[in-house]
Amino acid sequence: MQPLTLPGTLDALQPIRDYVKDLAKEAGLDDSAVYNLCLAVDEIATNVILHGYEESGLSGDVTIGGGVEEDKLVVRLHDHGKSYDPKKHSLPDDEALSRPLDEREIGGLGIALALDGVDDLQYETNEKGNTHSFIVKAPNVFCPPEYEEGARALSDEHRKLGILLSISRSLGQEIQLDRLLTLIVSEVTSAMEAERSSLLLFDPASNQLVSKVAEGMSTREIRVPLGVGIAGATAQTRITINIPDAYQDERFNRSYDKASGFRTRSILSAPIIGQNGKLVGVVQVLNKINKQSFTSDDERFLEAICIHLGIALERAEMVEAYLQGQILTKSLQLAREIQMGLVPKDFPAFPNISSIDIYAALEPALDVGGDLYDYFLLDKNRICFIIGDVSDKGVPAALFMAMVRTAFRMAATGSHEAIGPIMEKLNDFLCASNHSQMFVTVFAGILDLRTGEIEYADGGHEPPYIVHARGGATMIEKVGGIALGFMPEYQFRCGQIQLEPGDSLILYTDGITEAMNSDRHLFSAERIQETLDRTATGITAQALTKIVLGGVAAFVAGAHQNDDITLLVIRYAGN
Amino acid sequence: MPLTLKPSISGDVARLEIVGDVDGSTAPLVRDAVDKLLGSSPRALVLQVEQLGYMSSAGLRVLIFAKQKSPALTIYMVKPQPPIVDTLKKTGFYDGVYVTDTEPESGPAPV
User: Fold this and answer.
1) Mean of all residue pLDDT scores within chain A
2) What residues of chain B lie within 8 A of the CB of A46, using their CB?
3) What is the pLDDT of residue B110?
4) Which of A134, A247, A557, B53 shows a CA-CA span of 20 to 30 A to A471?
5) CA distance A73 to chain B (A)
6) What fold characterizes domain A343-572?
């Protein structure tokens, strides 16, 4: 409340009382304490006005203000009249108070009431004026002696509730797990009035407790199996353990004291249980300050704190998991950008070469599979092409795929050799540079535009189809070969395919054959065959691509796409 | 709370109903009213204080004034609020007045 300044006349008494009444009620004083405080201030204000101002021939203002300071309500009355210290006034004694009214002294009653109405009345005078400070303990004023013990207990409960609220608030604001752990330890030490605390988190994978933060200890991670030591016993039994003298308890491991130079006396060890009864960890508090050991009240209080710790820790773990998810999403986006940035997407691929019509599509799965395709002219008469599928997923697969594509181009364009030696060069390079044990299935070939003849090599890839100009489709009985990247110096056998004018070569990855519908059925090579068998003759590479992808899409009918879907169609128009 | 005073005299009993607060600024009004009532030399002064919300030492001084002016006067306080009773007890006035819950009839004062 803002201080209230009034002219120093008796008319100020009522507004002063109203002000004090509001202030006292706001501070939580009971009716009796409110009345007594009003009476105290009123009596002194009356003296200030009558004696300090009027009788001294002075005039001026009185200002009333105040508020709760720590556990007290302090009301201040300020004036500029003649200095008048109430405590220096003689008060009526018991004898005077017991006299008949007609023998009573007029003076002294007001000050007696004022002093009686507050816990303390202080007076200060200086060049700025006089200030009376009325001090009342809030809110448990005038507590009868028999209730004092109860009041102390209540006050302790109040303090603990305040600490719990403060812990809950500060833990709630911290979502970064590492910082939260440090914060927990310092909050618990302070709240429990202990010398040190430590926090161990439960690792379900190893069934061990892992020390995360221990005040006064090195940052070395300590692992404690469940059931071992005091922390391990706490975790296993999920019961708070209160040890008054650590050195008398055989479970206590003295080596920690030896290592840190700290002397553990008393230990309070409580389990942190999360939602659904899941064990989150154990918190240990060491050495109750100024006391021999922890009390049963301390046990209950630490258990109450542990409820908040459980919530805060589980929440922080969830946030971390979410952020990891965000990182994963970003990394997948990056992988997709790498992948899509490397495959050619401009069609028609060779607008100036009428004998060839190439179209391709790559539909990355959400978690990116590492498919690739590429084609380029080796010379004016020969086109080199490749389709591949890297074994892994995500960014590593995308980077490996980029390496495959670059190495293939280098191997192919650096020489005019046949596809076999190109594949061998590629394989040897991948084997030499492959520290992450990835591999890639590849089908690569060189098409001679003059003859329609393809020389190919297979690295464990799906068998291609030929869609014939006359109608119908045939799966290539390819010569076998192994995937690239794990067996150096492998000799790839080469095979030949003859394309007639109007024939199309269909290359694809297993994302098509293994596309799955909601009944968990695969699209399979048979459906590729059926789809291709039904296509009209004479259609473009793009139209063929769309028919196959359309067939896959109709089959899976919106079911989740697990792998990249890649299709490369090379239609030979002939000379 | 503004002060309202309702004085009346019935036989040898003077009555004053006090509604509101009695403090340093309003006590002189009460004192004047009591002074006028004492002019009829009543045997008893009955202060009807059920609606007396507040009384400081200025109010107590009115009682001293009345007793000093008429030492034989019996003062009744009818239905005072607990904080007022508290003030009377703290200052020893509780023994000097008759605190009652019922208004005394005209007649001899209780001994």
Assistant:
1) 87
2) 23-24, 56-58
3) 42
4) A557
5) 20
6) Phosphatase 2c; domain 1 (3.60.40)
